[in-house]
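Query form — protein DNA-directed RNA polymerase specialized sigma24 family protein

QUESTION: What is the three-dimensional structure of this chain?
INPUT:
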Amino acid sequence: MPALPPIPPATAAALIALRPRLLRRARRLGAAPETAEDMAQEALARVWSRLADGVEIGALENYAMTALRRAARRAAPPDAALSPGDAPAAPPTLPARLACADALAAIDRLPPQQAALMRLVVETGAGEAELVRLTGLKRGTVASRLARARVRLRAELDLAPGASVAALYL
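ANSWER: The structure tokens for DNA-directed RNA polymerase specialized sigma24 family protein are given below.
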């Protein structure tokens, strides 16, 4: 693989700092440890490549997590290859699916304005600036609603006060 062009040092540091979160997410997606490593590395390489191509990425973590989900889809064997009665080779990702279902149900119980913003985050991976553009709300309003929504979600999902709610999005 050819060497990728350099990107700004601060952006490179932020991207490298995302690696542990990408790896944890890859493992939560049900990947074996070596497959999780490969998926996280592929996601980082894809984001780095896009940055080196001059693509402006507003929400680096959201973009990287989307790249990881796409890498996970590519790594998963297609269900169509299974014959009726065949069991999948990999264990089901039931715990991750249940966590996702719990998070989505908790979002549904938020006040309507907070729930609407959180659904946009889940569906599009939008960051704060993108939410401002999509909704036409002021930046402070978006930030406030997201902060209150995250506090409520952490409480409902029994997460630590500083825990990232973003880890629950699939």
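ADDITIONAL NOTE: Residues 79-92 have pLDDT under 50 and may be disordered.
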